[in-house]
Design a protein that fits this description.
alpha+beta, five-stranded mixed beta sheet
Length: 190
């Protein structure tokens, strides 16, 4: 089936939003995280988030921005992702250079990591929690041919939008065929 982890292009001249450089916006994201986890509304906070990023001649338009942590996608990307018809994808709208962008996350957690054959590192302080997956082996029968998902072992992080998101080959091909700029698919260590 071929499974990859999705990320953003991180070329030297590609825009990245490092929250440590945007303290007031980072505070809003922290409040959004608190409300998201509590099941409380947070749209009024999202409407306050706006970034101004410099785009050079090489990148006059982008469809995917690394948020450190997280991944933001353009309106074009959102339409392509939604048209895949995969449940669980979520999009939190905010502004970049006056245009709508969306923090991208998925609530689709599939228990498909073969814990016996994968190589896992655990936290010393919490040995039941996975710190890192060194080598991935998936039970692919548990996935749809076109799938976007995360695994329970990597979903315990601070922010729900910072979790690793995986794409099957068919989902990856859909993004690539749409000509979206900035998506980077990382091959997984085998």
């Amino acid at each position: 089936m071929g499974i990859t982890r999705v990320g953003c292009s991180l070329d030297d001249d590609y825009p990245v939003v490092d929250w440590s450089c945007h303290a007031s916006m980072a505070d809003l994201w922290l409040e959004i995280d608190d409300r998201y986890r509590a099941g409380e509304p947070f749209d009024n906070l999202l409407s306050q988030i706006s970034y101004q990023l410099e785009l050079n001649c090489r990148w006059p338009r982008v469809d995917c921005i690394a948020m450190v942590p997280g991944l933001a996608v353009s309106s074009r990307s959102k339409v392509v992702l939604e048209n895949m018809g995969i449940s669980g994808m979520q999009f939190l709208e905010f502004q970049v250079n006056g245009e709508s962008f969306f923090m991208f996350l998925t609530a689709r957690r599939v228990d498909c990591l073969d814990r016996e054959r994968s190589e896992l590192e655990f936290f010393r302080s919490s040995p039941e929690h996975v710190k890192e997956v060194v080598r991935y082996v998936f039970i692919e029968e548990r996935l749809s041919p076109c799938d976007v998902f995360t695994v329970p072992e990597l979903s315990d992080g601070m922010f729900p939008w910072a979790q690793e998101i995986f794409f099957t080959a068919l989902a990856r091909n859909t993004i690539e065929k749409a000509g979206l700029i900035g998506f980077h698919f990382k091959e997984l260590p085998a």
